[in-house]
Every structure is written in C-alpha cells, then in structure tokens.
Known about the structure:
alpha/beta, 5-stranded parallel sheet, globular
Amino acid sequence: MLNRIFQLNSETDSSIFLFGGRQTGKTTLLHQQFPNAIYYDLLDTTVKERLRRRPAILYEALCEKPAGTLVIIDEIPEVPELLNEVHRLIVERQLVFILCGSSARKLKRKGHNTLGGRALPVCLFPLVSAEIPDFDIDRAVTYGMIPSHYLARRPDRLLSGYIDIYLKEEIKEEALVRNLDGFHRFLEVAALTDGEIINNNNIAQECGVHATTVSSYFDILEDTLLGYRIPAYTKVMQRRLVQAPRFYYFDVGIANHLLRRKELVRGTADYGHAFEHLVIQELVAWLHYTHSDERLSYWRTYTGIEVDAIIGDARVAIEVKSAEEIQNKHLKNLRIFAEEHPLSRLLVVSNDVFTRRIGNIECLYVKDFFHLLWTDGI
C-alpha cells in the first residue's frame, strides 16, 4: 500500500470536505489514516437507502458521542440531505466530520446545505512522484498518475473505460449537459488544446456549439475536478503579455487516452507535451498540499516567447523541456524573462540527468526537481 503525502490528520481540527477526481484514492486514504473513525459508506446500497429515506437516523446514531468524535461519510453527494444532520451534529455536539465526494458541484447545483463554512474544502490529487518507490518517469508520462492506472499491469484497458464511466456517472446522471455527444466531442477537442492557450471561439467551431457553451463546459470540467485552467501571468513590465488561461486535464493519462497517444517515445513532440503536463500536474498538487498562498501561472508574450510555469509573483520561473541534453537554446526564454524579473529563481526541468547550473539558471533532472519539491520546496 502506498503512503500518501497528503496527511489529513493535520487538517482535522475542524470538519473537512474531501474532494478529488474518481479513483484518486480517497477511500483508501481515509481507511489508511483514520482506521478508528466511525465510517458510513454511501456506496453501500443498504446504508444509502436507509439514510436517504430518513436522514435523521444519522443524528440519532451520533448525538450521544463525545465532542471531537471523528465521523467519515464517504460519497456524501449520494445523500446530500444528510448535510442538515451533519450541520446539527457539528453545532450541537461538536463532532468532527470528513465528508468525501468526487466534487462539490452536485451539492452546489441543487442548493444543498454546504455547512456555512464549518467544513474546510481540501482536494486529493493523483499520485505524486514522492509517493511511489522506484518512480518511473516514462510510465507516468504515458499512463498518468491515477493510482489504479499507474500501478496496473495493463493500464491501457483501464484508461479506455475511465472517460466513459466518468461521463455516465458524473455528467449524464447529473444532467449537467443536454447534448452528451457534443460534450464528448468537446472532451476530445479540449485534449487537443491540453497545455495550450484556450481559444473558446476556435473550440466552439470544432464542436459546433457557441463560445459561451464552451466556457460553461470548461467550468464543468473544473467543478467536477476533471481539469483545471492555469491563468496567465499578467504583471506587465515591458513586453505585452497574453491574458488567456491554459487548460490541463487533472491527469496526463486522461489527455493521452483522449488523444490516442500510446507508448510515448522520448524525443517526440507527443512525449514532450505529456512530459510538460506531468510536471505541471506535480506543481499543482504541491501547491495545494503545502497550503501555499502562491498561485501557479504561465508567462507568454504576444511575440511567442513563453515560460511554462511561474510561481507566485515571479518568485520562481520554470521552463520544462523533455530533452535529454540541455543546451543554450533551451535557456533563451528564461533569459528573456529574467530581463524583466531579475530577482526570479530560474529553473529548467528536463530529462538531462546532469543537474547543474548554467550562469544564473539551475538545470534540474526531473527526478531531482521532484525530490527538491517534496523535501526542501522551491
């Protein structure tokens, strides 16, 4: 069993909403870190139906428990009416809850009680490198970091069913979109722009829908934790900057499946795109797990000069290259960025195994970068 970096033990001074994409390992994490908690699994049909018929059973079962008792309700969106009882138990009995689900969208969309700020929302991401003994960078680039996919002997079979299951359970059953076929096409087109700047008009033409519909589709992907938008760094110094965000699926394996990228080979453009995605994916998880107030962005000028990742107010600038030998040509964009932001820490992350410094730029082998990220931070 893998030990996850994200330790919920440090979060349970108050109640928690634990969200995360399907199969990221939320249930396993809860069992592993809280073996003695009172546990309700709403995927158990018997438990779900009894609590759905009469939510007050939850209050009756817990109202005599001492203050501070930890209660876990897995898949809370299955019976959102329970949140009223949870609210009562938090306020009246000072119980502590971990409420687990794939996303908060169903709760918000139907106007259910979200506890008025009494539960802190946190998110579990796919695996990160520090959680995997003998981490295989090429396997991660090809199949992604969803635990069941990375660890499987035949991850391609699991990936082939993941999107269809997700569409059925998260999109179709919740009636989030009327045109499921159109949304499925959007998922494929969104994959084509994975890691690229979003242009709603171009995507709309590809999907045969309005640009406003495309924007709402991206909202659905973010709300259901299937993807996220990375904003542009917009602090203008001298050069005019692009303002539109970039989009990434929450796991590189999902993008690879939608794009039919299989067995990626080093030195190809497809490998390079997936390699960059994996590094961004790791940065997103690191910022969340470390409770950083800094945001992740990217920098691009209207003349096409870009840096893949900016942390905070240009404290760190990171260029991602899948090359196995870093040369001066790979450092050009960071040097231009440094002209406007001379105090920034400049990093190149690559497959070059010789970690070293070239002038004011740190060239880090990707595994060394990941190790630095999860030990000393950047």
